[in-house]
Amino acid sequence: MPKNPRSKKSHKSNKPRAASQPGSIRIEPIPPQVTAPLREVVLNVRAPGANGKTYYELVGESDGAMIHDSRGQFRWTPRLQDLGRRRFDVRVTDDDGNQQTASFEVLVQNEPAGETTSEMADNLPPIIDPIDNQSVPVEQPFMYPVSATDPEGEPLTYRLTSGPAFLSIDSGSGMISGRPMAPGTFPVEVEVEDPHGAKTSESFELEVTNDPPTIDEINDQSIPVGQPFSYPVSATDPEGQTLTYRLTSAPAFLSIDSGSGVIDGRPMAPGTFSVEVEVEDPHGAKDDESFELVVTNDPPTIDPINDQSVFVGQPFSYPVSATDPEGQTLTYRLTTAPAFLSIDSGSGMIDGTPMALGSYPVEVEVEDPHGAKDSESFELTVIDDGPLPESFSAPPAGDVESLPVDDGFARMPFSASTTSSESSGGAPPAIEPIADQRVRPGELLELRVRAMDVEGRAPALRLIDAPRGMTLHPTTGQLRWTPAWDTWGCHFVTVRATSGPGNYAETMFAVHVTAERPMLAPLPDDDLHPGRAWVCPVRAHACDTRRLSWSMVAGPAGMHFDQAASQLRWVPGWSQLGPHFITLRVTDPAGQSVERSCLLQVRNQPPRLPRLAPRVVAAGQTLQLTVRAVDPDGDPVQYELVAGPA
């Protein structure tokens, strides 16, 4: 049966021709053709037995005819003046230089198309339009419409004589269709037949491609030691196939969900760990991505410790307070201390009873389980100056002062809202609206931001607008904030969830820093000196403009509250040396109250007298020397001769 070539028109081959050599190349017989003026003649020249590629060309006068140089398809549309017989010569050459030449005739007559003379009565085979090699992604539908014409205009029947099992062809329309489920290259041959049994076939290759999946870039990650780590690996497959995730290199504490790609684990030791993730489609195509996971271990921090004092023979106790960023168990120890002091390694409580006067340097060290440390030093002064002063009692009712306090911000109704942006990459993620929040200064606000993309994975989260100090974990959605005392008012927070370039959703909510009862800022511990004024600003807030009443629960004689300036004032006397505990209470008209306390140490450091070197003086001579003493507190000093010769 004649074979149908594929398409590119050209008058002659581009390959340089070698001299004719004997070989096995031959041209199949070309039957004579009959046509009418302006009616195109299309036929396929076949040359089996060629070595390598085959090159076709017309030899001599062509009268406007063309032949495809590699497929051998001949086309000619005769003009009105071309009536009669026309001879065409075709030469075929293969890669080895073998050549063969053949001739055929075309009769152009003023007869209806399809009619032949007695000497050229023949049923011409149908002609299939050239089919280029095709490709389709694996698991995607493939369709190709085969197009063929019959010189006599009769109906044609299509069939596949060779092809993979997943392909079929419509016998009437010639539409090839199918869905390949595995990659590969498959030869396909199509045959077309007219009602009289004349046939033509055409071959092509169908390549089923399987491009590998792609993992989104993963930046290096960090996590505090002992804290849970989670990261959603995101990958896409060009054919939309189900992917399998695995860790090809990772520390033992990490694992990955093979279906979702979420990496989870809890590191129990600090360090830097290399992680490699691999994703694979059902046909073995893979991609991998590497990153480093840094497990941090920030050292603990000891709260500042002021210098302390205690009366000789009296028990001393001080609770050392330390915090660890990772929330680990801490161990306390004394690296420098007098023998009478000891510390509880678990609680940090320092205890001891001094039996001798003096000043003792003390250094406390705290250590986490991984060796990160912090230390704090202070001086413990053991004094002997009589009993503590009597406790200060509350002033009479007529002396109680009150001060109106306003929280300083206007009330504003606000409801949570969400916005989103969609790129050509797909739908944006969904983020759950967050209701407005209320929190008191100094208290922890903690909530979980929930979001999900269209594939059920957790998108990356970050804060767009937020008050200072607020944090949001990018994968777990844990939002935390402890408002400071100067953050009263309404704060707007915007959270964004991103699932890919340009694909994000946002939600907004308000945080009102307020209180349902009065609030007092902490009162600082301090060291004072007799005769010098101590002034402490007092900050208080309430949720509205109600008047607040102030009272001293405990404090030394002479301390008072300045209503106009909102300050505690006191000038300690020389008889008030030692520690004094202050407790201040604020109460609103509804009876809600709050108290704050602090420790004031009234100290008087002794003057420092330089050592006097021995002197030699002759009898009858006058000894004269100048003694200069320095007082650490800057007080004037008085000199007195305690012992000496008469």
Account of the protein in words:
The chain is mainly beta and 646 residues long. 0% of the residues lie in helices and 43% in strands.
The number of E-state strands comes to: 54
Strand order of the largest sheet: 35-50-53-54-47
Low-confidence stretches: 1-22, 113-121, 385-417
Q: Work out the strand percent.
A: 35-45%
> What is the rounded distance between the termini?
149 Å
Topology:
Blueprint: E1 33-35, E2 41-44, E3 54-59, E4 66-67, E5 73-76, E6 84-94, E7 99-108, E8 127-128, E9 134-137, E10 142-145, E11 148-149, E12 157-162, E13 168-169, E14 175-178, E15 184-193, E16 199-209, E17 214-215, E18 221-224, E19 229-232, E20 235-236, E21 244-249, E22 254-256, E23 262-265, E24 271-280, E25 286-296, E26 301-302, E27 308-311, E28 316-319, E29 322-323, E30 331-336, E31 342-343, E32 349-352, E33 358-367, E34 373-383, E35 402-404, E36 417-421, E37 430-431, E38 437-439, E39 445-448, E40 451-452, E41 460-465, E42 471-472, E43 478-481, E44 489-500, E45 503-513, E46 519-520, E47 526-528, E48 534-537, E49 540-541, E50 547-554, E51 560-562, E52 567-570, E53 578-587, E54 593-602
Parallel strand pairs: 1-7, 9-16, 18-25, 27-34, 38-45, 47-54
Antiparallel strand pairs: 2-5, 3-6, 4-5, 6-7, 8-11, 10-14, 12-15, 13-14, 15-16, 17-20, 19-23, 21-24, 22-23, 24-25, 26-29, 28-32, 30-33, 31-32, 33-34, 35-50, 36-45, 37-40, 39-43, 41-44, 42-43, 44-45, 46-49, 48-52, 50-53, 51-52, 53-54
